[in-house]
Structures are given as C-alpha cells and as structure tokens.
Amino acid sequence: MRVIITLACQDCKRRNYSTTKDKRKHPDRMETSKYCRFCRKHTTHRESK
Fold first, then answer.
1. What is the pLDDT of residues 24-38, one digit of tens each?
2. Which member of 1, 28, 29, 33 has the greatest number of CB atoms within 10 A?
C-alpha cells in the first residue's frame, strides 16, 4: 500500500516535495537530503503531515 507524503525542509519548514512510500516496509518518518529553493542549498527534508 503506497501513500503520498510531503517532505518539508528542516531549516525553513516549507513543504517542497511530494513523493510516495510503502507504509508496510517503512512505517517511520522518511528523511532525505534535498535541495531547498528557498534556502538555496541542500538541506534535510523530513516527512510531514
């Protein structure tokens, strides 16, 4: 069962990306390093509600 999630920047707290993930294999919150156009640098993006 794949669900759509949004990723928010940890620095500016803006929601920049949306992606899907499998809830059965990865029940915890996802965290990746992505480019934030508002901060103009690569930052940690975490799954938000």
1. 999 999 999 999 999
2. 29
